[in-house]
Amino acid sequence: MSKVTYEVVDRVARLTLNRPEVHNAQDPELLVELDRAWTRAAQDDDVVVILVRANGRHFSAGHDIDSPADKYLIEGKGQVETGYRWEQEHYLGFSRRWRDVHKPSIAAVQGACIAGALNVIWPCDLIVAAEDAYFSDPVVLFGICGVEYHAHTWELGARKAKEMLFTGRRISAHEAHDAGMVNHVVPTEDLDARSMELATTIAAMDPWALAQAKRAVNQTLDVSGQYAALQAGFDIHWTGHANALLRTGQPLLGGVQDVKEHDQARQES
């Protein structure tokens, strides 16, 4: 079964994460399939808008670090170069490619959107969130500065970004909207309909004008330093991995259980 489905409806390519049994956790195969789906949509003349969404209760629980396939760091134990190159391509590299696709893109988010899931939604031009959506990056608990596509400051502003990283707490859909990260918050049961309504409204516009408008905004961000800042953030991210490898021989200082216990404590407080 495909881990990412692809369909075109009313000039909108719908790219759907399809691992609901594990809350759409991202193993390497899912990420490669998603990248191929983005490329397909970019090259499809019948597509004007790209909509990224997910099956199931949650958009994505982030990287599937328990996946048997996700052993590039463990197998390259002690080799910073191995992990750095892999993540440069599959995390930061994929996200940058998706961001720069010339067609407008929308992420439709429900439930959990955790850590590596931010690598999927932040490259999109617009975000529609269900009322039950929440966003978090608890990666500091692993001894890492944050996820690979380190756009926190651009998406949330400096102080809210620091709070997200320093505490690992969840940010609600409404809080994300207030910070400017989310365009619309809609009832959970209306997420599909409302995100498609937005997508088809945009798809009725002239594709060339849309591409030029997107390019103008993205180039403004790049002139302001976003492109260089994302690479710098990724390099800082890798000092965390290198530190963990040096100290323990493993790529992370903390463990999954640390994150689960932290999240549970936050919910109970």
UniProtKB/TrEMBL annotation:
A Pfam family hit: ECH_1
Q: InterPro entries recorded for this chain?
A: ClpP/crotonase-like_dom_sf, Enoyl-CoA_hydra/iso, Enoyl-CoA_Hydratase/Isomerase
The catalytic activity of this protein is classed by the Enzyme Commission as 4.2.1.17
An example GO BP is:
isoprenoid catabolic process
Give the UniProt keywords, A-Z.
Lyase
Q: Does the keyword Plastid apply?
A: no
Gene3D superfamilies to which the protein is assigned, alphabetical: 2-enoyl-CoA Hydratase, Chain A, domain 1
MF-aspect GO terms = enoyl-CoA hydratase activity
Classification via NCBIfam families: PRK08290.1
Q: Which family does it belong to?
A: Belongs to the enoyl-CoA hydratase/isomerase family.
Name used for this protein in its record:
Enoyl-CoA hydratase
Q: Which organism is it from?
A: Nocardioides soli
Q: What is the lineage of its organism?
A: Bacteria, Bacillati, Actinomycetota, Actinomycetes, Propionibacteriales
